[in-house]
Amino acid sequence: MTAASTTRRFDFASDNVTCASPQIMAALHAANVDCVASYGEDRLSSALQNRVAELFECEVTVLPMTTGTAANALALSALCKPYEAVYCHQSAHVMTDECGAPEFFSAGAKLIGLPGAQGRLQAEDLEAACALARSMGVHHVQPAALTLSQATEWGTVYTPDALKTLTDSAHRLGLRTHLDGARFANALVHLGCRPADISWRAGIDVLSLGATKNGALAAEALVVFDQSVVQELLFRRKRAGHLWSKMRFLSAQLLAYLSDDLWLHNARQANTMATRLSQGLSALPSVRVVQPVEANEVFVEMPTECIERLRATGYHFYDWPAPAGIHGAVIRLVTSFDVCAADVDALILAAHR
Fold first, then answer.
1. Average pLDDT, whole number, for the chain?
2. What pLDDT is recorded for position 8?
């Protein structure tokens, strides 16, 4: 069961615009009884810890939070010192959309963006950047961490082998590794693998596990595989004001999200609708999908007149910087768990008209 819209869907700007899944709202209602222990000492938080350990097949520490920005920034702050560097893709969310939060929470660590086709980094570029930094000694921030996005900001996905190649290189260079999993479930569904295969088995030390874009009301979690950073993260979370006293309401959302495969069901619907949308738009003259569609984002080159008319019709989406080699106007269309085939087909028909 997912939330069903009774009106035609016009907003394809983001997967943040959706309602919450009914299962998650029901879980919140069920949690809203009696008095329970605070700050994560409740039954639901304990059950969440066990559920995540079961899903990821290893010992983990789970730290629920309310925003992806807080999860990413606090994770990175525990992995580097103020005079050190975090390497990421130049289009990564931490680089472009978090208003300096990683630098703020780390007290000054520098993000260094690296290029990479289709939103993905290559090990040789990371190695070259680290070699340059170390050759400059005290004149350059020193390499400390690598953060990757899964799925990427271009809607593409790292395979387990590709992740392992990058993390092996990072660990050889003395870097710790973080994965921004705002759309982790979408990547998981696309790959058809186990959660462990694109997290700790692929060399990830800390995962920001997203839920808000995929059906939660407001819930994210740090899943910590490297237990050596847990104590620091506990204090940093509290100091930053992200330790909820009524933690059961975060844990209830995440527990419902990860139960009965809701997270995979929601992600599968979003991915399927993105594929349907990309195929429908690709069949139109003068329209081109400019990136592989591997999750729930579709990047489309389209005549400016068509873009303007779609907006005049009522559709919402973002203009997007064109990737290398593309000279026309590009927009981003995002599907979510509550988008249905009729919504997608209506958009395709509007573009055709």
1. 96
2. 81
The domain of 267 spans 262-352
Could you give the CA distance from residue 196 to residue 229 in angstroms, rounded to a whole number? 19
Closest CA to 219 of 208, 227, 211: 211
Q: In a 10 Å sphere around its CB, with 0-12 CB exposed, 13-18 middle and 19+ buried, how is residue 3 labelled?
A: middle
The mean pLDDT of 152-170, rounded to a whole number, is: 98
Q: Has residue 5 got a pLDDT over 80?
A: no
What is the rounded CA–CA span in Å between residue 11 and residue 338?
11
Does residue 75 sit in the same domain as residue 35?
Answer: yes
Neighbours of 271 (CB within 10 A): 25
Looking up residue 199, the CATH number of its domain turns out to be 3.40.640.10
Give the residue from 232, 257, 282 where a domain finishes.
Answer: 257
Residues 249 and 130 in one domain: yes
List, for residues 102-143, the tens digit of each pLDDT value.
999 999 999 999 999 999 999 999 999 999 999 999 999 999
Q: What is residue 6's predicted lDDT score, i.e. its pLDDT?
A: 58
Could you tell me if 204 and 340 lie in one domain? no
If asked whether residues 55 and 150 sit together in one domain, one would say yes
Tell me which amino acid residue 71 is: A
Within a domain: residue 8? Answer: no
212's CB contacts (< 8 A; 6+ apart) are: 16, 67, 68, 218, 219, 220
